[in-house]
Structure formats: C-alpha cells, structure tokens
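Worked example 4.2. Below are the chains of a multi-component assembly; read each line carefully before continuing.
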Amino acid sequence: MKIVCPQEELSKGVNIVSKAVPSKSPMSILECILIDASSGSIRLIANDMEIGIETVINGRIENPGIVALDAGVFTDLVRKLPSGDVTIDIDSNFKASIKCGKVKLDILGRSGEEFSYLPRIERNDKVIISQFSLREIIRQTIFSTADNDNNKVMCGELFHVRGNKLRVVALDGHRIAVREIELKESYDEKKVIVPKKALNEISKIINGSIDDIVDIYLSKNHILFEFENTKMVSRLFEGDFFEVDQMISANYETRIKISNKELHSSIDRSTLLIKEGEKKPIIMDIKDNVINMKMSSIIGNMDEDIEIVKEGKDLVIGFNPKFIMDALRVVDDEEIYVYFVNSKSPCFIKNENNSYVYMILPVNVNVG
Amino acid sequence: MKIVCPQEELSKGVNIVSKAVPSKSPMSILECILIDASSGSIRLIANDMEIGIETVINGRIENPGIVALDAGVFTDLVRKLPSGDVTIDIDSNFKASIKCGKVKLDILGRSGEEFSYLPRIERNDKVIISQFSLREIIRQTIFSTADNDNNKVMCGELFHVRGNKLRVVALDGHRIAVREIELKESYDEKKVIVPKKALNEISKIINGSIDDIVDIYLSKNHILFEFENTKMVSRLFEGDFFEVDQMISANYETRIKISNKELHSSIDRSTLLIKEGEKKPIIMDIKDNVINMKMSSIIGNMDEDIEIVKEGKDLVIGFNPKFIMDALRVVDDEEIYVYFVNSKSPCFIKNENNSYVYMILPVNVNVG
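Applying the procedure described above to all two chains together yields the following structure tokens:
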C-alpha cells in the first residue's frame, strides 16, 4: 500500500476515528487504526466493538492495500508531522515508512486481516437532524443517565421518534430528563435505547453547526450516524425503557417562577458547606413571594432569600443540591417555572409546551 | 471584627495568599487564611512555614480584630459570592457571618492566636527587578532544578547579583541552566539559594508586566519579594552552590548553527518512538552541513536530516531528547548555536554574550 495525503486531512481523520479506539482490548488488533485503501478511497477505521467509526479522507492512492497501525503511536505521530503531503508506504512485512518534507520515520504495522470492520446497517428509515440539535439534545439530558447500574437501560437514553418529534429521555433512579424537539420531516414511530458512550462520542465529533445535518439510521440492534465523510455505528441496548409519561404528568399544588441564575448561584454556594463525600440537602421554604434557602453543616450555615412569584400552597422541601444545579445548567430560559405537589413528591422544572421536563426526587427532611 | 470590602478585592487577595496555604499541616491553624484588621489595614496572610504571603486589600474596618478562616472553604466561598460589597462580621465565638447582597452565610472561624505571621526581614540591600524579567528568568531556568535530591541545593536556584547583573543558575546533575540579565542599578555582590517552590509561586502571583517592579530584600536566611500590596517571604537554602564557571567555559571542537524550530520538532517526533518509562537516546551525526537525527526502538525508527552551518570536526553524539527540548523551548532565538567538544563531553546551547547557557551531558552510545 502506498498513499499520499495532506497532513491536515490525516490529522482530522485520525482525531475522529480515535474516539472508537479502546485503551486496552483483549483483541490487540483493535488498539490499531485501520487504513483501508483497497477500494478506491482512503478509509480510516477504528472499532472497540461497542462503537465503530469510519471516515474517508482526501488523498491519492499510489498502491492499493490495507494496514493496521498502533493507534497511540500513529495518532501522536500524525499530530507532530509538519504540514504538507504525507506519504505512507507499506512494505510486504507491514513496515510503514512515513515521509513528510524532511521527516522520515518507520513504524511497525500489522496486517488488517483480523480487524473488525463496521457492521453493515441497512439504509431504510433515515431520520434527519441538524448537528446543532443533536449535540444540544444530548448535552441537555445525558447528565441524568446512570454511570453503572444493574439496569443497563439507565446507562443509555431513549430516542423516541414519532411524527415530526424527537423525544429523548434519560433517568437514573433519582431524576428524569426529557427533551423534545421538532424535526423538519415526519417519520414512522421508532424507539431505541442508545448507550451514553455513543452519545458522548458523537457529540465530540460532529461540528455542532445548525446548517449541517446528521442522517440517523436505525436497525434492530444498531444505530448509524452518518455525516460528511464519517460514519459511526453503535450497538443499541436491548429491553424496554421506562414509561415516563405518567410520572411526569402529575398535577401540582405549588408553582413558582424564579430567576434561573439566582437559584443556581444560591444552590452553588450551599455546596460550599458540604464536605467531600457527604450528603446534605438544601431546604427550600416557599412562602408567599419568597423562597428561603437553608443549609446547615459542621462547616457553617446558609440562610438566603430569593424573590419568586408563587401560585398555590406554601411548602417546605429538601433536595440534593447537585441534581437541581445539573438541570438548571442546561435550561437556557432566564426565568423558570418549578412545580411541586408536596414535600414527599418530586418537583418538575419545565416549560409550558413540555419541550423540556426535569423531574427530581426530594430528600426526606425533618420539617419542624 | 467587622470589615466591608468589595468582592473583587477579597477574591484577588485570597487568590494571592492561598498559594502559601499547605494542603495538610500538622499545625491545623496553618490551613487557615488569617484576616488581620487590628491595625488600620485589612491584611490577608497565609504561611506554610516555607513560604509566607501577606497582602493588603482595600476595604473599611468597622470593628478592628483578627480571625482565622479555613482556607479551602473561605476561598471557594469568596469565588462564589456575587459582585458587590462583602461584610464579614465575627462574633465573640469566632463565628463569621458573611453577607453580600441577598447572600447570608455563616462559617466557623478560629482565633488567630496560634497563627504564624511572616518573619520580619530587615529592609537593607534592596534589589529592583521588573516583574517581566523575574518571571522570565525563572521560567527559563527552573526546569533544570532537581525534584528531589539528597543535595538540597539542587532543588533551588542560585540568585547571584554582582554589579548591575543578575545571574540565575539551576542544575540537576545532568544539565545546567544559566541566565544573566542586566539590572537598572548596581549592587554589592550577593549570592543566595532560593527554593524552587518559592520561585514557582512568585511567578504565579506577579503580573509579569514590564512596567511593574518587584523589590527583593535578602537577609541571611530569608528572601522577601515585595510588590504592590503584597509581600512574599521564603526561607533560603543554606550551603554553598556549585561553582559552574569552569564547567561552562570549555573550548569547543565543533560548533553548529541550526534552526531552533527544526531541531525541536525533530527531537519531539523522536519521542514518539519511546515507550513510557523507557530511556532512549537520540543520536546526532554531525557531518559537513547536515545533522542526521536517528532513533531506533521496538516501535520503529527515525532517520531525518536537518541543514546546519558547521564549524570544526565531525561528531556523533547521543542525548536524552527531553533535556535538549527543555532548553530549546525557553530559547527565543530562531537560529541557535550548539557547541560540542567530543562524544563524551557535554554540549552547550548558548549565545555570544552568554546571556543564556544550557549545558547538557551526553548519553553514552555505541558509535559503530
């Protein structure tokens, strides 16, 4: 194999596919990046068997062929090459001679025979979404997934397409995050559970532009994201996701309107009083047009008032401060509505058309 | 004690003194920041008994007094306060009530009785240097100090004032870094060994401007840096520093002129071939007007040529690539001169007036 391509192309491609390289794998060939120049285009491929990424880079094939190169060494090397045309020449022992200007380096490569290519996904049922929307909807929900759970579906997100709506749901047993966006076209109903790892990685490799799109294809076991010259395939989680409609449709007894920023910075300050590893609730005392925020610990005490517009009953309720802050951080509205039922029931941070709903369970507190 | 001061002042002051707070100390009072408003100004002080920092902040003293506040909690808290006037009110049990706008927090403080103030340094023999020069001369030498060494002076730098010159020397047994700058005034000769920790911290808290100065006072056991409203005192290392003049004044057999950038990036690429923890020399083969750079390892091989202007004999010599790169990184000249004696003797990267000299010992290599 012999190829010539600009350093910038190679660097961009390697950065994209390296997201799917496992740091350690029982199949050591998977710790490589595959360069496949056997069929008219230069494809870079990496695959950790959960997600696989393939990208086509611009360049000239002088001699078709395939080689697998250690991902760590190759990625560092490509980054440190000067700009200009890079020649990669593989001999019959898979030794890769890499030249770029005056630079001359050899590294040992491997045959690509044992490498796992991406599974072939049938291209029916395409869903089109802008790169901006995909990145946003992930950012606004992914913090509510579980890190490790016996119930694996909690480590993923429900992607639910119905008509021209995409709804994404994440939950971890303490809270639920729901976002819904409108798509440009209408589709048949589809429900899949996408592992959070795939969502984290796709967020990093799309450019997030509102003008660029991602095509999403769904098969029984896989999801394929396709954009520009790049494809990313991930396994899906099997099983049924939780039905959350009932949980998030409760009536309320108390509704407050409050400044997102004031609420966020007040809760943020309360966390100063919490030692690492300790759990302390923040107590919210809602009365008339003021919410009083209290926390006590061995470090000290907080006692602050924030003005609100209240509708309904007075209420005292406690929360894990982190959970409230996580939700506030991804809500762009400056003024938000928070809904309560009673001190034992979850609160809801949501807007009128339910394009976002964040449900958070309270912490049991002794209300004197 | 009761003081009122702008959040910005408090935040700036706390950031400066927190550099001298130990993360853990057998004297737990030292894990605090002392606020001393007992004598007409608001002073913040921290002291880990190696270095001590004191800074005066603007504000109003409503009630004179002294309090020690846990540095971690207080620093975080100050950062998270909104901008505006902060009132700190200490009651007879050293409980600190902190108010800022609607914010109301209490934290437990301590009496400052056991706190260690900065040692008093006599203000004779001031040396004046610009903040820019001080920061630069530290950056350009400190990488050559030893991290841990039986010979403690290697963990510090020699500051040597003579006439209108300041010379700074650092060495770690493998290399020597020497920088010399001109001062605006002339001084009596002084030689002290300053611990690297003090130099690292002072670099962080000065602004590095060419228009602002630092006054340096030397006593037998201490160095005092004074600028704007801030003082930093550090112990000095006792003992004699190495005499390096002889070591760095050798004649040469070979001198090359080379592009700093080309040499740096070539050596940088060679490090790709080194596994973590492994030691591999880079072999430089100097011949006529080309230097050939070679490295071989189980990962692969490098073989590159760089054009040079050579004077004197041909030479083959090996170096630890990191040591050469460390020196090149802090030399601003685009074209540099490197001097060699033979393959067993150190090389010197230096300019004509010796305002910088980097000496690096070679690695023994088998030259076939």
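Take a moment to check your reading of the output against the notes. Chain B has six helices and 24 strands. The first helix of chain B runs from residue 7 to 17.
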